[in-house]
């Protein structure tokens, strides 16, 4: 009788210790989803609040970066909407869109390099 085939995958020690960055990537995508649906950043910030503190320090900094991006972006959006009555708000809305895209790209790039984003406490980038 033939022996059964063993399909067990053995992970190396380095692979077993690597944290899963999928949720952090999804949160960046949800933050950028504001341009499509408008509600996805709320889902993203909830995920960030739930999962912060569960991984290594550099990954927790990404969740902190997500949370700060959400709240700072919301503040900038409110200011832009108020100033839209004076017509300068429309320019600020365009600048806010650029700010959000750049901030998410910087964070995503740092996530791919498995390091914390630079200047997490910054209000700009």
Folded structure, characterized:
The chain is mostly helical and 125 residues long. The chain is 63% helix and 0% strand. The chain is built from five helices and no strands. Helix 2 packs antiparallel against helix 3 and helix 2 (22-32) runs antiparallel to helix 5. The longest helix is centred in the middle third of the chain and has 27 residues, at 57-83. The protein starts with 12 loop residues before the first helix and ends in a 13-residue tail after the last helix. InterPro entries: MamF_MmsF. It is a multi-pass membrane protein. This is DUF4870 domain-containing protein.
Spell out the blueprint of helices and strands.
Blueprint: H1 13-17, H2 22-32, H3 40-51, H4 57-83, H5 89-112
Characterize this entry briefly.
The chain is an all-alpha fold and 125 residues long. The chain is 63% helix and 0% strand.
Q: What is the percent of helical residues?
A: 55-70%
Alpha plus pi helix count: 5
The proportion of residues in beta strands is: under 5%
Structural class: mainly alpha
Alpha-carbon Rg, integer? 19 Å
Mean pLDDT: 87
Number of strands: 0
Bulk shape: elongated
Subcellular location: Membrane
InterPro entries: MamF_MmsF
Pfam families: MamF_MmsF (PF09685)
Protein name: DUF4870 domain-containing protein
């Amino acid at each position: 009788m033939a022996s059964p085939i063993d399909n067990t995958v053995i992970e190396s020690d380095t692979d077993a210790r690597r944290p899963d960055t999928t949720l952090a990537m999804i949160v960046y995508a949800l933050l950028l989803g504001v341009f499509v649906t408008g509600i996805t950043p709320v889902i993203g910030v909830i995920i960030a609040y739930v999962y912060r503190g569960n991984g290594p320090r550099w990954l927790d900094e990404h969740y902190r970066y997500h949370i700060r991006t959400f709240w700072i972006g919301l503040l900038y959006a409110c200011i832009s909407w108020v100033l839209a009555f004076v017509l300068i708000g429309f320019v600020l809305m365009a600048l806010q869109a650029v700010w959000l895209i750049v901030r998410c790209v910087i964070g995503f790039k740092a996530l791919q390099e498995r390091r914390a984003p630079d200047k997490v406490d910054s209000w700009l980038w």
